[in-house]
Amino acid sequence: MKPFFAACVLVVCTHSAQAETLLERGRYLMESVVACGNCHTPQTPQGPKPGMELAGQPVMDEPGFKAFAPNITPDKETGIGTWSDEQIIVAIREGKRPDGSIIGPPMPFEVYRYMSDRDAAAITAYLRTVPPVKNKIPASVYGFPLPPAWGPPVKKVAEPDTSDPIKHGEYLVNALGHCTACHSPLVKGAPDLEHQLGAGGQKIPGPWGMAVSANITPHKDGLAGYSDEDIANAIAKGVRPDGARMSPPMAYWYYKNISASDMKAIIAYLRAMPPKPSPKS
Ligand code: HEC
Ligand code: HEC
Hints:
- The protein has helices at residues 22-31, 37-40, 85-94, 109-112, 117-127, 165-176, 179-182, 228-237, 252-255, 260-272; strands at residues 43-44, 47-48, 57-62, 65-69, 141-142, 186-187, 190-191, 203-206, 209-212.
- The chain is an alpha+beta fold.
- Strands 3-4-5 form a 3-stranded antiparallel beta sheet, with no helix packed on it.
- A hairpin with a 2-residue loop joins strand 6 and strand 7 (190-191).
- The chain starts with 21 loop residues before the first helix and ends in a 9-residue tail after the last helix.
- Bound molecules: heme C (HEC) (2 copies).
- One heme C is lined by residues 34, 36, 38-40, 59, 67-70, 72, 80, 88, 91-92, 97, 103-104, 106-108, 123, 140.
C-alpha cells in the first residue's frame, strides 16, 4: 500500500491510497524518509526553523572542509527558481549543476543515483511549491579536488518492487533515506558501502558534539537484540530501548512521519542485511 498523505492539494481531497498525486508523493517523501531538509533547512534544537524551509545552512565545518547546503527554495536570486525540472533532477541524482559544475559532499550522490524517475520527479514537483526565501548562502570550500563526475549519467530508474518488503526496504534505506551513507564507516572520506554497509562507526562532529553512527546490521554489535518496536522507536522517536535520547544529526524530526508500511519495509530490510561487526575505533 502506498502511504496516504492527508493534504488536499487538488480540488478534490480523495482518501484513497491509489489516488496519491506526484506532488503528494513528493511532500510525503520530503517530510519523512528523504528528509532533504535535515541538511538544507536551518535546524534548531526544537527541529526545523519555521519559515526557513530549505533556505540553506552550514552542514560541515572541519579543517579544509566547510560545506554549506544551498538555498533550494524557488527564489530566483538566491535559490533554484530559474532551474528546469530536468536540471533539478540531474542535480539530485548526478550532483551536477546547470552550469556543469560538480556539487560536493556531504550530499549523498552515491545513493541518490538509485532514486526512481517517479520519486525524483515527485521531489522536484514538491520543491516548486515551497515558499521562496531570499537567503544568500556562501559557497562551500573543499580542501581537495572534486571528481569530474560522481558516476555515469543516470538514465532510467524504474520504480522499486514494493511487493517484496525487503526489496522495498532496501530502496528506502539505501537510496531514498541515505541511511547507509551515515551508517557505514568512512574509507578515504567516502562511506564504505561495498564492504562495511551498515556497520556504523562514522564520526559526525557538529553543534551536538561528536556523534558516532550506530551499527544497523543484524550483528550482535548492531540490532541483533532489538525488537521491531525498538527499531521503530529509534528511527521515528530517537529513543533507545533503555529510554535514552539519541543525538542529532539523524533526521528524527522527519522520520516520525514515515508511514507504517514504509517502516515495516525498512525493518524487514535491516533484519535481512548481511551482519557486519562494528569497525575497531
Ligand atoms: C547530508 C546533507 C545533504 C542532504 C541529505 C541533501 N543535500 Fe543537497 N546539498 C548538500 C550540500 C552540502 C550541497 C552543496 C555542495 C557544494 O557546495 O558543492 C548540496 C547541494 C544541492 C543542490 C545544488 C544547489 C546549488 O545551488 O548549487 C541541490 C539542488 C540540492 N542539494 C538538492 C537536494 C535535495 C532535493 C535533497 C534531498 C533529495 C538533498 N539535496 C539532500 C547537502 C545535502
Ligand atoms: C545524518 C546521519 C544519519 C542518517 C541519515 C541516519 N542515521 Fe541513524 N543514526 C545516526 C547516528 C549518529 C546514530 C547514533 C545516535 C546516538 O548515538 O545518539 C544513529 C542511530 C540509529 C539507530 C539506533 C541504533 C542503536 O544502536 O540504538 C538506528 C536503528 C538507526 N540509526 C537507523 C537509521 C535508519 C533506518 C536511517 C534511514 C531512514 C538512519 N538511521 C539515518 C546517524 C544517521
